[in-house]
């Protein structure tokens, strides 16, 4: 670290190793829980879309179950969810603390949010396109992948972006179960030890990361609106 | 042949049920352009969606030559193969194969916005086991057919309405269907694009022997390309026949309205209401509407009658329609003169293959 930077934030410099560990913990939580969130939320969002009234696989029972469960988990504040899920987390991962202990509640916290985002994205696909595909003899899978998911790509990218940002916010709370990460670093080494420069650096790092995610998301969403991601040549 | 037999469809809502299609039977010959006209809510869209089972009829059956018969009963669809008598539940696979044999185009095109023109046209060909170069060949062929080869890499958002509908037509026909369903395909287009799409459809009908079932609320469209037409009102077919006959002699009030909407007769009614001078009340004066069949269009009837019966004939409106290559003349004249001569003149015209209808008669007033 250059000298001027060291002078500017002396405490960050002396806790550099801890800072690095925290960043890495945050990224681990974000990437692993993000992966599962997008997977589960995607599946549930599709399920809500196809099983709703008038959907291509109308099924009131499945729709009601997914809809209600999504609502229930959406209404529990994350910090409560974190402790509420401790027994379940222990069952799944063998431990309820540390990064591994935080992943399960993170997935539970973000999936309902992403599910609703996916549902809204797919609801934006013109039913006329679905009708046209049906008329051309497309099956259920064809309609889901070639019409719904394909046409909703820009909206899905926006959903991934906004859920990612919200997930980064959630990971900072995971410090409550000793998962570490940038949130607990800011509290333990910044706030509790009265090192304001540490808090400031945490804010800046998060700001950079969130802006990065947002601008990549925006660029991709813009590029894929009424357009394929890649240039097509014939 | 598309044989629609006693098809009914009711939409059940919480409060009230809507009978969209009520016991409709129609037969549509192969290779013909068949029009179904009606106001919105008349059930024509629902009826045409029953042909490819986008809507499941409550009862009735649909027979498609080369495929077989599908019968709706107790909320289920049953299939009978051609020349077979055994009935089985219509499988998903069979339904999809039926749909692949019927192309469909829509008012709002329904193209995939994130797909290029090429990918849109290739939609039914991809994942069908067809080889890539065969797909390419077929797509190019279709794009040539609709004259859009230069737009191959464009996206729908870069095309005009007429071009989008051309892509939709190419997409609908890529699979080589024998039938094309057209649901208000020109309703969202400007007059020029409408004309070009209609002439393309007529051309496809002639060149490929394509059967076209065309829904519209515009009589001008029917007049332009249909051979037969069914008029729908409140879910039922109220009149059906050759377009020429329907135009020459519309029976139902709604059919008359449609015919008048396309030939200026609607304006005449307004003119009569607003301007009474069309009919001279002080004299013996009668307003007539004359329809000439194909045999009478060439005759110099007006001057002949005028001379023969010493009556004055004033032409208020004149129009000739070309329907499937046959002329249909229409003439509105006011005739003045001696009362007896007027009657004799009308009788003479009726005898010379002209359909005469008295619109207003000042002698009665």
Features:
heterodimer, A: 234 residues, mainly alpha, MetI-like fold, flat, B: 365 residues, alpha+beta, Rossmann fold, Alpha-Beta Plaits, 6-stranded antiparallel sheet, 34% helix, elongated
Task: Describe it.
The complex is a heterodimer of chains A (234) and B (365). By secondary structure, chain A is mainly alpha-helical. Chain A has one domain: MetI-like (MetI-like fold, Orthogonal Bundle), CATH 1.10.3720.10. Chain A has 12 helices and no strands. Chain A is flat and about 70 Å long. The relative contact order of chain A is 0.14. The model of chain A has no long low-confidence stretch (mean pLDDT 93). Chain B is α+β, with helices and mostly antiparallel strands. Chain B has 2 domains: 177 residues, Rossmann fold; 101 residues, 2-Layer Sandwich (Alpha-Beta Plaits). In chain B, 34% of the residues lie in helices and 32% in strands. Chain B is built from 12 helices and 16 strands. In chain B, the strands form 3 sheets. A 6-stranded antiparallel sheet of chain B has the order 2-1-4-5-6-7, with helices on one face. Chain B is elongated and about 80 Å long. The mean pLDDT of chain B is 91. At the A-B interface, helix 8 and helix 9 of A face helix 2, strand 8 and helix 5 of B.
List the helices and strands and how they pair.
The complex is a heterodimer of chains A (234) and B (365).
Chain A: H1 3-8, H2 10-14, H3 16-51, H4 60-75, H5 78-84, H6 86-93, H7 98-123, H8 127-135, H9 140-151, H10 153-173, H11 181-191, H12 196-224
Chain B: E1 2-12, E2 17-28, E3 33-37, H1 44-51, E4 59-64, E5 68-73, E6 76-81, E7 87-89, H2 92-100, E8 102-106, H3 117-121, H4 132-145, H5 161-173, E9 179-183, H6 191-208, E10 211-216, H7 219-225, E11 228-233, E12 236-242, H8 243-248, H9 253-263, H10 265-274, E13 285-292, H11 301-309, E14 312-323, E15 326-336, H12 339-351, E16 354-361
Parallel strand pairs in B: 3-10, 3-11, 8-9, 9-10
Antiparallel strand pairs in B: 1-2, 1-4, 4-5, 5-6, 6-7, 11-12, 13-15, 13-16, 14-15
Helix pairs in contact in B: 4-5, 5-6, 11-12
């Amino acid at each position: 670290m250059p000298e001027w930077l060291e002078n500017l934030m002396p405490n960050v410099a002396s806790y550099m190793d801890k800072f690095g560990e925290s960043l890495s913990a945050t990224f681990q939580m974000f990437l692993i829980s993000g992966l599962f969130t997008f997977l589960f939320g995607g599946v549930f969002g599709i399920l809500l879309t196809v099983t709703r009234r008038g959907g291509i696989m109308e099924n009131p029972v499945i729709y009601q179950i997914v809809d209600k469960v999504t609502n229930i988990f959406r209404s529990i504040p994350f910090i409560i969810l974190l402790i509420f899920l401790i027994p379940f987390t222990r069952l799944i991962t063998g431990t309820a603390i540390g990064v591994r202990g935080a992943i399960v509640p993170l997935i539970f916290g973000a999936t309902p949010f992403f599910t609703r985002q996916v549902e809204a994205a797919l609801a934006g696909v013109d039913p006329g396109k679905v009708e046209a595909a049906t008329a051309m003899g497309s099956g259920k899978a064809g309609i889901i992948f070639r019409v719904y998911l394909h046409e909703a790509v820009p909206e899905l990218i926006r959903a991934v972006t906004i859920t990612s940002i919200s997930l980064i916010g959630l990971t900072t709370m995971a410090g409550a179960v000793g998962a570490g990460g940038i949130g607990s670093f800011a509290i333990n080494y910044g706030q509790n030890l009265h090192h304001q420069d540490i808090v400031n650096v945490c804010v800046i790092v998060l700001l950079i990361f969130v802006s990065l995610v947002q601008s990549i998301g925006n660029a991709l969403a813009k590029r894929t609106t009424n357009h394929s991601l890649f240039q097509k040549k014939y | 042949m598309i044989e629609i037999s006693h098809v009914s469809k009711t939409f059940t809502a919480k409060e009230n049920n809507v009978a969209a299609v009520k016991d409709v039977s129609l037969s549509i010959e192969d290779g013909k352009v068949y029009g179904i006209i009606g106001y919105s809510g008349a059930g024509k869209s629902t009826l045409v969606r029953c042909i490819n089972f986008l809507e499941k009829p409550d009862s009735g059956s649909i027979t498609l030559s080369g495929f077989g018969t599908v019968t709706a009963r107790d909320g289920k669809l049953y299939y009978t193969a051609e020349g077979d008598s055994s009935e089985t539940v219509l499988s998903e696979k069979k339904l999809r194969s039926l749909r692949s044999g019927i192309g469909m185009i829509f008012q709002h095109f329904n193209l995939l916005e994130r797909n290029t023109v090429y990918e849109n046209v290739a939609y039914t060909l991809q994942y069908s086991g067809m080889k890539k170069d065969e797909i390419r060949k077929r797509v190019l062929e279709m794009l040539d057919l609709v004259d859009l080869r230069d737009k191959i890499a464009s996206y729908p958002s870069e095309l005009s309405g007429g071009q989008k509908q051309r892509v939709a037509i190419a997409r609908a026909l890529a699979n080589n269907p024998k039938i094309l369903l057209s649901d208000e395909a020109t309703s969202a287009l400007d007059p020029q694009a409408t004309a070009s799409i209609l002439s393309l459809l007529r051309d496809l009908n002639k060149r490929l022997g394509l059967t076209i079932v065309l829904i519209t609320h515009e009589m001008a469209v029917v007049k332009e390309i249909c051979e037969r037409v069914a008029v729908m009102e409140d879910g039922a077919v109220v009149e059906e026949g050759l377009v020429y006959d329907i135009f020459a002699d519309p029976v139902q009030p709604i059919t008359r309205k449609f015919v008048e909407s396309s030939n200026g007769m609607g304006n005449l009614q307004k003119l009569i209401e607003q301007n009474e001078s069309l009919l001279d009340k002080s004299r013996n004066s009668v307003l007539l509407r004359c329809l000439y069949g194909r045999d009478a269009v060439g005759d110099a009837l007006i001057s002949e009658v005028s001379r023969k019966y010493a009556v004055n004939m004033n032409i208020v409106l004149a129009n000739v329609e070309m329907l499937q290559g046959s002329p249909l003349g229409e003439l509105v004249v006011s005739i003045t003169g001696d009362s007896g001569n007027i009657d004799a003149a009308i009788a003479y015209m009726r005898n010379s293959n002209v359909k005469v209808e008295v619109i207003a008669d000042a002698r009665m007033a």
